[in-house]
Design brief:
Length: about 170
C-alpha cells in the first residue's frame, strides 16, 4: 500500500517554493542491513530485491539461485529499495495536511543511516541555505532536535535506516 508523505504548513510552503527538496522517513520492515565491507551491504528483510532489479552503480552483495554470494556494483554509498512513499521511479505520494495531492514532483530515493546526514542534506531537509548555520555544527544540532521532536530521543539514539527522498518541483509547460 502506498503511504502518503504529509507535510505541515511551513514545510509544504517550503516544498512548493522549491526550498525544501529532501525528506527522511524511517524504513519499516528492514531492521538489519549488514555492512560486509566499506560501501557494500547485505540486505535482510521481508522483501530483498533481486539483483536483476538493481540500478547501475549500486554496491550490494547478492546471492545466486545456487546460493553462491556475488558482489554487484550498482550505486555508491546507498541501496535503492522499494519505497512505500513512491509511485514508480519519478513520482511520489505527497499530500498537504488535508490530504490534497501535491503534483509535479520528480523524485529520487535512497536508504541510509539517519545520522549519516550531511550539512548540505540538512539544508535540503529544512529548506535553508548552507550558510544559515554558523558554526556549521549548529546545523547538526538543529537536525537532531527536529528529528527528536518528531520521532523521539530513543529513535535518534537507535540511528535507524531511513528513506532519503529527494524531490524537485517541476513546472507545467
Amino acid at each position: 500500500m502506498l503511504k502518503p508523505l504529509k507535510f505541515n504548513d511551513e514545510m509544504l510552503k517550503a516544498v512548493l517554493d522549491g526550498r525544501k527538496t529532501q525528506t527522511r522517513r524511517p524504513v519499516e520492515g528492514f531492521s538489519v542491513f549488514e555492512l560486509v565491507e566499506p560501501g557494500f551491504w547485505r540486505i535482510h528483510g521481508p522483501n530483498p530485491r533481486s539483483i536483476d532489479e538493481l540500478d547501475d552503480g549500486d554496491q550490494v552483495i547478492g546471492t545466486t539461485p545456487e546460493g553462491a554470494e556475488i558482489k554487484v556494483i550498482v550505486k555508491e554509498k546507498y541501496l535503492d529499495l522499494h519505497c512505500p512513499y513512491t509511485k514508480g521511479e519519478h513520482s511520489i505520494n505527497a499530500r498537504d495536511k488535508y490530504g490534497v495531492p501535491i503534483v509535479g514532483l520528480f523524485v529520487r530515493v535512497r536508504v541510509e543511516r539517519l545520522q549519516s546526514i550531511t550539512l548540505g542534506d540538512i539544508c535540503k531537509e529544512i529548506g535553508c541555505g548552507l550558510y544559515d548555520f554558523r558554526p556549521a555544527t549548529y546545523g547538526f544540532q538543529v537536525w537532531e532536535e527536529l528529528w527528536k521532536s518528531i520521532y523521539g530521543e530513543e529513535n535518534w539514539e537507535a540511528n535507524p535506516w531511513v528513506w532519503v527522498i529527494n524531490f524537485e518541483r517541476m513546472e507545467a509547460k
